[in-house]
Amino acid sequence: MNRNVTRLGRGQGPTQAPGAVAHDDDHLDAGLPDPGEDLQPLTPRRKRGIYLLPNAFTAAALFAGFYAIVMAMGQRYELAAAAIFGAMLLDSLDGRVARLTNTQSEFGAQFDSLADMVSFGAAPALIVYQWSLHGLGKLGWLAAFVYCAGAALRLARFNTNIGVVDKNYFQGLPSPAAAALVAGLIWNMADIGVIGDRMHWVAFALTLAAGVSMVTNVPYYSFKAVSLRRSVPFITIFLIVLLIGLIAYKPPLVLFALFVGYGVSGYVLYAWRRFQGRTASVISTSTDEPDERGLHG
């Protein structure tokens, strides 16, 4: 008999040929996992979704911009202008709510930019064209287009320059402030009963100035350095109360005056820096600035 043939002895299992590897669980199916291995628990896959609270504010701002366009089509310019200011208020809240609740997301940042383009880019341009600029023919729609294109470029530059711009300043006039200039003029004239057909060239000049200011390198103070947790002098609270009272007394005039002052302040700061021999650029020398996504121009 061949010596390589497996022999069975008393109390012994079958012997194997040299070089074979013995397994105690050869009777198990090959497709089953080894019971001796440590099985890693399966991590449940997170469902991809969006945060409700900040995006609800963004959606409300988008609705306000769309509502403004609809009101302008119906020649209800006072309501259209007021809706732009409402969109500004909602836009100022969405990013802050996202940071307070730790619900920032890339979706929210992109959604905010698109909503801003409607509320502060397309809507003011269409409203001022319907209100007054249409009387200038090609010059009218050209001015409206310059404003709309300026808002788009302003928002695109803001998104790409996050992290390299000094957080204390905006590079160019923010699009909500530009929209406030255009809407503020319309609101004031509607409030005192002046029709747009008498304001062709004023609307033309202001619309062009707002559009160009958005794409300049003029620095505008961002108010991001203002801390709400610090104590302030008593007079500060009194001034805030006084400002609220003035706005409540004459909202169109006071709001328009505030944003005209803010629009001029950037050029004053630019001239002052140049006079002192300092650079007027607001590009930071480091990239350590905090992420400001959700607070779009």
How would you characterize this protein structure?
This protein is mostly helical and 297 residues long. It has a domain at 52-165 and 173-217: Four Helix Bundle (Hemerythrin (Met), subunit A), CATH 1.20.120.1760. Helix content is 57%, strand content 2%. It contains eight helices and two strands. The protein has helices at 52-73, 77-100, 106-131, 138-160, 175-192, 200-215, 234-249, 251-275, and strands at residues 169-171, 219-221. Strands 1-2 form a two-stranded antiparallel ribbon. Helix 3 (106-131) packs antiparallel against helix 4 (138-160). It is globular, with a radius of gyration of 32 Å.
Secondary structure elements and pairings:
Blueprint: H1 52-73, H2 77-100, H3 106-131, H4 138-160, E1 169-171, H5 175-192, H6 200-215, E2 219-221, H7 234-249, H8 251-275
Antiparallel strand pairs: 1-2
What profile does the largest beta sheet have? 2 strands, antiparallel
Overall outline: globular
What would CATH call the homologous superfamily of the domain at 52-165 and 173-217? CDP-alcohol phosphotransferase transmembrane (TM) domain
CATH topology of the domain at 52-165 and 173-217: Four Helix Bundle (Hemerythrin (Met), subunit A)
What number is the mean pLDDT?
Answer: 81
Tell me what the CATH architecture of the domain at 52-165 and 173-217 is.
Up-down Bundle
First-residue to last-residue Cα separation: 94 Å
| Count of DSSP H/I helices | 8
Helical content band: 55-70%
CATH class of the domain at 52-165 and 173-217: Mainly Alpha
Helix-strand string = HHHHEHHEHH
> Strand-residue fraction?
under 5%
Q: What is the C-alpha radius of gyration, as a whole number of Å?
A: 32 Å
Could you list the spans in which at least 5 consecutive residues all have pLDDT below 50? 1-15, 19-28, 285-297
